[in-house]
Amino acid sequence: MNKAAVTGHIAGESAAKYASTVGRVEDDDGVCETLLKKSMTPLDRVGGFTSDHVTTRVQQTIFPYEVHMVMHEKRLQSALTMVKFFKDHFISSMKASDLHDLRKVHESRNMVQCAEMLLGSPLVRKESRGTFYREDYPERDDENWLKWIIFRRDGDKMKIWTEPVPDDSVGDLSMPYEERYSLKYRSG
Questions:
Q1: 145 near 187, Cβ under 8 Å?
Q2: Domain boundaries, the chain
Q3: Is residue 115 scored above 60 in pLDDT?
Q4: Which of 17, 32, 104, 149 suits a disulfide with 27, CB 3.0-4.6 Å?
Q5: Class of 45-187 in CATH
Q6: What pairs with residue 147 in β-bridges?
């Protein structure tokens, strides 16, 4: 599950590359001002949850062995329910004492969003594959699960769907799974 993260370095380079191609953008409709105000709001709160509290609660929820490594639908669903509770009740109430703390508030908010995806993905995938182990679906199922799981934010909700893995990423299906992928990654 930890391979779903995208580094800030890659995101920053991509954003800079995009920004260099679009030129000056006018904020006629006040979107930038609205986003700036929203992002700074935790500095104005006197009471609320700290980023350390939220981060700790998320980590306690998603990293236990029986949730993260030996997965089962009931445990994944329970953890996802907690993460959605954090999203609904903690995120909008987080406070920051200074700009450093504000950065941590935004990181905690992003951590909740990533946790939702990290738990949602194995709930969709009804099989075990490689180091991905579902206790309730212990067998690999190439017929139904040579698929990618895709997420996209849709307002305040997460939209999730599957797409077949492209043929050029599947490898030689006549080879055993372990050999097919270990050879591909060793040589590339």
A1: no
A2: 45-187
A3: yes
A4: 32
A5: mainly alpha
A6: 164
